[in-house]
Amino acid sequence: MNLLTYTNPVRRLELALVLSGDEEPPTTSLEIERPIDRVVAKAAEIVNSNSRMTEKDAKLAPVLHKTLKDVPRRHLTDHLFWHWMTTSPLKEFVIHRWPAKETGEYPAERYLGNQTLNGVNRNGLARLYWTAEATVEDDSYELTETVLTNADLHLQIFDSSFCLDDRLVKTCIRLLNDVGEHVHRKALLLLRIRIRTTVIEALDGQQLEDLVSHCLAMAQNLR
Which of 1, 136, 197, 199 could bridge to 36 as Cys pair (CB 3.0-4.6 Å)? Predict the structure, then answer.
């Protein structure tokens, strides 16, 4: 399938019309071919499964990432591309994951994201791609699936500046996934305080692990 992007952003007020097919925003070709049909087929299989919603995210993320990982970054960071993805080829998955409210209004951020630093984490598909990008290791998506099935941990990590450093993201997932919501929230709060005065980029892997471990130990003592 030829990848497309919208010429203009989809507005919140027109989102329902776009999803219903009553309105078709103009598109521009990226002149890049990718087997999106395979992702669509996998998404349909996942939608029809009995898995929990977070597990469905975890199953789709690796497929989506493998399909798009060689696409130029300028397209993958363009919200217009993700508007097209969530409202056209993969809209059935996003609608299943984040359906319309009783009022008929869709949760727009899950389709359109927002313009904040971490706004990409709000788009229902971009969040899966960038989670996989930050957590894949030697073609293994174990950490991707781990964090996507732990919804609160994912939110705490990827809605913060942590998500800007992949090494720190991986370390947090490894050390905090099994400690419980109350503890991982406290540990991440302490970590946020520490990194205000720490140059994360200057730390090696062991130093990052020591930093997160120290915050975890403090959080456990505060219980």
Answer: 1
